[in-house]
Predict the 3D structure of the following.
Amino acid sequence: MIKQTLSALLFLSTTGLAADAIPGIGPTGEVQKVQTGFEFTEGPAADAAGNLYFTDIPKNRIHKLDAAGQLSVFVEPSGHCNGLMVVGDRLLACEMDGRLKQYSLTDAKETVLTDKHGDKRFNAPNDLVIDQAGGIYFTDPRFRAPDPWPQGKEAVYYRAGDGTVTRLIEDRNAPNGVILSPDEKTLYVVPSMEKEMWAYPIEAPGKIGAGKLLCELKQAPGATSGGGDGLTIDTAGNLYITSALGIQVVSPDGKILGVIAFPEQPANVTFGGADKKTLYVTARKSLYSVTMEATGHAFPGPAALAP
């Protein structure tokens, strides 16, 4: 781990942007700009100690913001990592250079979990979520993929705890964000190039039923098929989907409850902090935070992770 502070990046306490509160959800305070000066931030993931990990894709880095506000480089180069998730003492990561992998949080040691489906590398793994069986659902869209796409299709995969990889979905246009419901009975998939958001019933780990339309995202002026990017979920099952308008909060039954605006277009979002009531948002060149009334869901993952 590289521990030096990145002094070239600016710390800003607040943007002065007071977001309209959604009843029972929040925010309860102003949007704060925590750090800026990056090229393109993505993949925020919080651990139980209050640390936050996030990526700067063009810079080929994973950053760590500790509970005291100290910023450092956790991994460089990262293989252009995008989506991250903390489970136990591991940091799971989607590497856009074609691999799904994990890092030890203690020494940043890297372990590749899978790098191909069939005999071909993945396009560019983008986002992931782990279930209690130790399986990982992850998306593999077109962004940063070689041309032609190695897999020939954009898809959603499941990497089981024994290492077996299964393609689950191949009919979405740029599947991007992915997450489970708190009871792990529903898989949500957010495409970036269609306005429709999708929900899939989980019949067993790594086995899904037919997808159902969850909702259509609100569109920015002039747009007709703008999709989402990343997302997170709270303990009540409400989804927080990043979009061109900001974060669109969607109930489990598909109702759009409201939109939380940010100074820059959000790419991804997670809950963090000691009480899981701080919403951290990666948005282009900056990292933002805002306190919420809602509490983020913490995915427990399996009792033990296979290597």
Summary: The CA atoms of residues 198 and 255 lie 13 Å apart. The chain has no helices and 28 strands. Residues 1-18 have pLDDT under 50 and may be disordered.
